[in-house]
Design brief:
This protein has 430 residues and is mostly helical. The chain folds into four domains: 8-70, no CATH class; 136-234, no CATH class; 239-300, no CATH class; 324-430. It is built from 21 helices and two strands. It has a two-stranded antiparallel sheet with strand order 1-2. A hairpin with a 5-residue loop joins strand 1 (30-32) and strand 2 (38-40). Helix 18 runs antiparallel to helix 19 (385-395) and helix 18 (363-379) crosses helix 21 (415-428).
Length: 430
């Protein structure tokens, strides 16, 4: 983890940028001190720790004992460090090292709550020598030597970082032997030096795309794209989602809007989506039907949706999760695209659109929808019952009522739609 530094020079640059971009916002907040230098207005803003030194001359602005250059929160007396760099200080963060184990649990286990690779069990990472950084000429070399069968000094010689916590050949060999299944980077069922070992060392050297995977993917590999390989190396300890119940997935989805680490969770989900099965992804998207989507998750769902549509298919889970109480131009256009395809005559597709996407309907989309409903009714022999159901639902939506009634009288309505309307009113005796 790279340390973050704050300097007075950076504060000065930030101030200049603020003044140049939004002058009105800083008027009255800044002034000049006795030396003609910009200073925070007001005695407490200028000297928050009340030690008699203004922030310009104070190297510990909040008086917490940690110098500003080393303090991630230089104006917060209660916080100074952020080990996992998630924006939450260690005193507030319940999992300081972001390893999935709470600080309380790690203290009970006797592991280090500030070291994300220190866990009682199940905490594998490619930082083999435990120096808090996975590197090609140490960790990558250790893995590829191990997979070639090296042991003892031949395994570790010249391949252990200075300051490594795991530096003995026996400890490293034991760690890698226990982690044999995790070393199977391409997911072909075997851990091999010239596939998995080569993939790791290339990745750690910064290779990507074809240069990462060329000639290094085993036969029958589960992960055979550069994106899948990269995602696995970045997060080999992802939870096995197949072991989760549907209720657990639902609980996770419903908790997102109010979760204190929502951004982190969503980022992890989106970045590692290639590792999840379609079963889990579809279940998760179905649960999102009742959850307001953030932009990253919405973009991900739209992509899943578009991929299917391109092949004249529809991901119903994605379609359901995109439900919105606001008009969305991109979604509107894609719905129009769908309703121009034969696949939209499916009852399940029509039902989701009618129930979840009526906010996207203008005159054109409404006409397309009812036309496809009429075609479905006719082709499946529902004798008007299916069309009547959709018509009744939509005409009761206040936003659509006028549009539906106008369409009834439109001379430009398609012939199949006109026929469906005539049948509808013949059945009602009107």
């Amino acid at each position: 983890m790279k340390p973050m530094f704050r300097t007075k020079a950076l504060i000065g640059v930030s101030l200049l940028v603020t003044l140049s971009c939004s002058h009105a916002s800083v008027v009255g907040r800044f002034g000049e001190n006795a030396f003609g230098q910009a200073a925070w207005a007001g005695p407490k803003a200028e000297d928050p720790d009340l030690d008699g030194l203004s922030n310009i001359f104070d190297d510990d602005d909040d008086g917490d004992g940690v110098k500003d250059d080393d303090d991630k929160f230089p104006l917060d007396t209660n916080e100074a460090f952020d080990t996992d760099n998630d924006g939450f200080g260690n005193n507030t963060d319940l999992d300081d090292d972001d390893d999935g184990f709470t600080d309380q649990q790690e203290l009970a286990d006797g592991t280090d709550p500030l070291n994300r690779f220190s866990c009682k069990s199940g905490c594998f990472s490619f930082d083999v020598d435990e120096n808090l950084e996975a590197q090609p000429l140490t960790d990558g070399l250790l893995v590829i030597r191990h997979l070639f069968g090296f042991s003892g000094d031949s395994l570790t010689s010249g391949a252990v970082s200075g300051g490594a916590s795991r530096d003995g050949s026996d400890a490293i060999a034991s760690y890698l032997t226990e982690a044999d299944s995790q070393l199977d980077i391409d997911g072909d069922g075997e851990s091999k030096p010239l596939t998995d070992g080569l993939l790791l060392i290339r990745y750690l050297f910064g290779f990507s795309g074809d240069s990462l995977i060329s000639g290094a993917i085993g036969d029958g590999a589960e992960r055979d794209t550069a994106e899948e390989v990269e995602a696995y190396i970045q997060a080999p300890q992802l939870v096995d989602w197949q072991q989760l119940s549907m209720q657990s997935v639902a609980d996770f989805a419903f908790s997102l809007p109010t979760h204190s680490h929502r951004n982190r969770l969503e980022e992890a989900f989106v970045n590692n989506a290639s590792l999840y099965s379609d079963v889990f992804l579809n279940t998760f998207m179905e649960m999102l039907e009742y959850v307001p989507l953030s932009k990253p998750v919405e973009t991900f769902v739209l992509q899943r949706f578009f991929q299917k549509v391109q092949y004249d298919d529809i991901n119903l889970a994605a379609l359901r999760s995109l439900s919105s109480n606001e008009f969305d131009q991109q979604l509107h256009c894609e719905l129009k695209n769908i309703l121009n395809k034969d696949i939209s005559t499916r009852l399940d597709v029509l039902s989701v659109i009618a129930a979840r996407h009526y906010e996207q309907m203008d005159n054109e989309l409404l006409t397309l929808f009812l036309t496809q409903a009429a075609k479905a009714d006719e082709s499946e022999g529902h004798a008007g019952a299916l069309f009547s159901g959709f018509f009744s639902d939509l005409v009761q939506v206040p936003k659509l009522r006028r549009q539906v009634l106008t369409l009834l009288r439109s001379p430009e309505r398609p012939a199949v739609l006109a026929k469906a309307f005539n049948q509808l009113f013949a059945q009602t005796g009107k």
